[in-house]
Amino acid sequence: MINSNLEIAQVGNPILRQQAQYVTNISDEKLQQFIDTLLTTAMDAKGVGIAAPQLSQSYRLFIVCSHPNPRYPDAPLMEPTVMINPRLLSHSQERVKGWEGCLSVPGIRGLVPRYQTITVEYLDRYGKLHQQELTDFIARIFQHELDHLNGILFIDRVENKEDLVYNQQEK
Q: Is 145 considered catalytic here?
């Protein structure tokens, strides 16, 4: 049985500051169940992405699942995408600031600079290698989630404290 009610790790939990481990056995049944749990948790929490360390698992694995919701009403709609051992291959010179929040940092939003366009590589849940170009909000989600795998939170990327705001509705 899949536990779809795992608690999301909150800022202060040491796992959020650790380098996640590479996934070596994609077909492992427990890993596949965990992927389902990540998908369910992201949707239940109205997130547009979630990384394995946020559910206290040190895997280089995250979900990108952009969809309009109360937290991100203008988010583009896309199929939830499982990204295992993701890598950023290249990026544009242009960086754009945009508002970000995080399921692990409730109640806070920050204006974070991210690359506008990126080329990425990842394995899907079946082990198939994908390479694609991501832009705008989807590129932002990828970079945010990749940071989670490297022990970085969006609040670390904010350039000055005036770019942080408290959002009581997200608490």
A: yes
Picking from 19, 141, 17, the residue whose alpha carbon sits closest to that of residue 88 is: 141
> Domains in the chain: how many in total?
1
Q: Identify whether 49 is part of a domain.
A: yes
CATH number at 90 reads: 3.90.45.10
Write down the pTM of the prediction. 0.93
Interval 110-155: pLDDT, tens: 999 999 999 999 999 999 999 999 999 999 999 999 999 999 999 9
Q: Per the domain annotation, does 131 fall within a domain?
A: yes
* DSSP-assigned letters across all residues of the chain: ---TTPPPP-TT-GGGGSPPBPP--TT-HHHHHHHHHHHHHHHHTT-SEEEGGGGT--BSEEEE-----SS-TTPPP---EEEEEEEEEEE-S-EEEEEE--TTSTTEEEEEEEESEEEEEEE-TTS-EEEEEEEHHHHHHHHHHHHHHTT--HHHH-SSGGGEEE-GGG-
Instruction: State the residue range of the domain holding 58.
Output: 14-170
> Which of 7, 94, 121, 145 is the catalytic position?
145
8 within some domain? no
Judge whether 7 lies within some domain. no
